[in-house]
Write a structure and sequence with these properties.
The protein has about 240 residues and is α+β, with helices and mostly antiparallel strands. About 30% of the residues lie in helices and about 25% in strands.
């Protein structure tokens, strides 16, 4: 009977010893949790600093692109002048052939269309409603072409800093457009033939035409200058 009592004491002891291991496991669980907390804070700060340092270099290359294209940013007031209807919009351009072709280009500012005819020392056989004349003055090398208003037409140059309105264009059309060598940058800058300016005319049909100069290039055949832009035409209604 005495040996049976001792056996019961030994069975009671293990349950009381089993409770301490559960308390010792709790401090072990706290340590890994505390060691994991600083790790994510270190990883979140690193990519944030990389993003901000990479963003600024993208802005400077983007800003010069529009100006490098040569496009005009001048706004045109499309309000029609008295006696004229709403503006029609199209395109115009100068694209000379090699001077050895002995061709000249005539541009109708009512439509923006151009035609080519045989060159005869700058003389025009039949204007056919054209307002601009682009012809080879000589044929001794590059930069032979000259641009002018067709004789007996109303053509002028609207400077880039002038108001781009139909009424202002009509006034400027009375000033004339003398022969210009578009390959001579100094000459055309002094004359005001630059990107942002416009050629103005009261056409043979009585319309007010504004041909904006959006591009000037010497990349034509034989190195001759080309020019192009948007053509606004306010047709006469009365």
């Amino acid at each position: 009977m005495a040996s049976l009592v001792v056996g019961m004491d030994r069975d009671d002891a293990p349950p009381t010893v089993a409770s301490p291991p559960s308390s010792s496991a709790s401090p072990d669980a706290v340590d890994p949790a505390s060691s994991e907390e600083p790790a994510p804070t270190a990883t979140t700060t690193t990519p944030a600093s990389d993003d901000t340092s990479a963003a600024p270099p993208l802005d400077p290359p983007d800003s010069p692109l529009p100006s490098g294209s040569g496009a005009s940013t001048t706004r045109v007031d499309l309000a029609p002048p008295r006696g004229h209807g709403p503006a029609r919009e199209s395109s115009w351009g100068l694209t000379p052939a090699p001077c050895t072709n002995y061709e000249q280009q005539l541009i109708d500012l009512d439509t923006g269309l151009s035609r080519v005819e045989k060159e005869d020392n700058g003389r025009i056989g039949e204007p056919g409603g054209a307002e601009l004349h682009y012809w080879p003055d000589t044929c001794t090398g590059g930069a032979d072409y000259r641009l002018r208003g067709v004789p007996n037409t109303r053509v002028g140059l609207l400077r880039a800093d002038d108001p781009h309105t139909a009424e202002q264009c009509r006034k400027v059309s009375n000033t004339g457009l003398p022969p210009l060598d578009l390959n001579d940058s100094d000459t055309i800058e002094q004359a005001g033939f630059v990107v942002g300016a416009a050629i103005c005319s009261v056409t043979t049909e009585g319309s007010v035409a504004m041909a904006t100069i959006d591009h000037i290039s010497d990349g034509g055949i034989g190195g001759e200058a080309t020019a192009s832009g948007t053509l606004y035409v306010w047709p006469e209604t009365s």
